[in-house]
Amino acid sequence: MDKLFGTDGIRGKANRYPMTSEISLNIGRSASCFFNKNKKIIIGKDTRLSCDMIESALISGICSMGVDVYLAGVIPTPGISFLTYFMNMDAGIMISASHNPFYDNGIKFFKGDGYKLNDNEEAEIEKIFKENNFKYSQDIGRVYSLNDSDKNYVNFLKDRVRKDISFKGIKLVIDCANGATFRAAKEVFSSLEIDVYAISVSPNGKNINDNCGSEHPKKLSEAVLEKQADIGLAFDGDGDRVIAVDEKGKILSGDQIIAICAKHLKQNGRLKNNTVVTTVMSNMGLSVALKDMDIKHAIANVGDRYVLEMMKSCGAIIGGEDSGHMIFLDYHRTGDGILSALQLMESIVSSQKPLSELGKIMSVFPQMLVNVEVKNKPDIETVPEIYNVIKKVEKELAGKGRVLVRYSGTQPLCRVMVEAPTNEDTKRYCDEITKVIKSHKSFIF
Questions:
Q1: The whole model's pTM is what?
Q2: Boundaries of every domain in the chain
């Protein structure tokens, strides 16, 4: 049986292993065995078609173990993190495949304190699942629908805004990816007297992340120019990521947002331990910018859980990924796209400068990322042809760029990322490596 957990919970195509009703039923049972204190688990979901099916299966499995289920409905992933500890739950479960297409789905877990599980905790749930030796309770759990989940989460976000900051009069366009933020985001920003225009807020089960949201910010850029807005913000399907667009329609990456917020925190004496944590996927330009600001830069493995672990170990309060997944540990226990957006907007208001000006803090090195579909995931270093071409490119870059080849933790993909001095060099080197991967017998279908 394949490994269940990837870099962010369990994920796959709906109605195929591991995202089937049968598997979800036993995942619910396994989670109930692992989280067994107050006998209360909260479940949230995004807007994709298969969420109801998986939710029903989880409910059945959890209730069969004598644990009560509280349904939060459609809500961003960070909302479940908050509600889990706010409501004194044993655990929180979010049904979502984040930025993936609608036909994928996933299951993410939060502990009672609102933090995601570590590798050992996930392994324990997987062990219970695979042993299939459940200790059934004579009691049967009940199901309760929550009517104020959105309201509590929105109030939580509003309380994270500094009282001396006013956003009144800011013209904002938001793209909610037809996903979990489609209600909460507009409510938060509107309550802060921001002039909000929202797009991609009509989910139908199949249009989540479909040519919209943080993965596809072109429409947002066009809307910002059309509405003559001060800023645009694009969230992903489950609301834990955000990508920004400046008033000129230029798209800013997560790395650029991190650099802007880090500078703002440092200037205000709030950058604890003078440290920022990002992953190996961050652009080289971020390292240069942080060095110029005399800020320490710690590098974690890909995945927000690993970013969080390193943040805790080095006492940092800001960390994240170039994808737009950012953690502000002083305010929340997981990545939150709306919270990150509020932090960025606070930086804009405090500096009294437009976002286009703030974005100049970081020069983005030319970068290319290509996803190669693979059937197997052998250790890269054990495949001589691929290992050798990577070393060849690294030698030619001679410290003026970098190569990162890694597997996706949630999809059957090998990701090839190259940064080089010019766009031409970046494409040439990236093509050279991907050509070898696509032709190798270990990978091709």
A1: 0.89
A2: 5-149, 153-251, 252-336+344-361, 367-439
Q: Domain 5-149 belongs to what topology?
A: Alpha-D-Glucose-1,6-Bisphosphate; Chain A, domain 3 (3.40.120)
Beta-bridge mates of residue 417: 369, 404
How far is Cα of residue 32 from the mean position of the Cα atoms in its chain?
25
With 80 as the cut, is the pLDDT of residue 442 above it? no
| Assigned fold of 252-336+344-361 | Alpha-D-Glucose-1,6-Bisphosphate; Chain A, domain 3 (3.40.120)
pLDDT of the residue at 445: 43
Give the span between the Cα atoms of 145 and 389, in whole angstroms: 55
pLDDT band of 415, cuts 50, 70, 90: very high
The reply to whether 137 belongs to the active site is no
Q: Distance between CA 140 and CA 66 in Å, rounded?
A: 4
The CATH superfamily of 367-439 is Alpha-D-phosphohexomutase, C-terminal domain (3.30.310.50)
Q: Which of 24, 81, 96, 98 is catalytic?
A: 98
| Beta strands 171-175 and 231-235, pairing class | parallel
In angstroms, the CA 95 to CA 71 distance is: 11
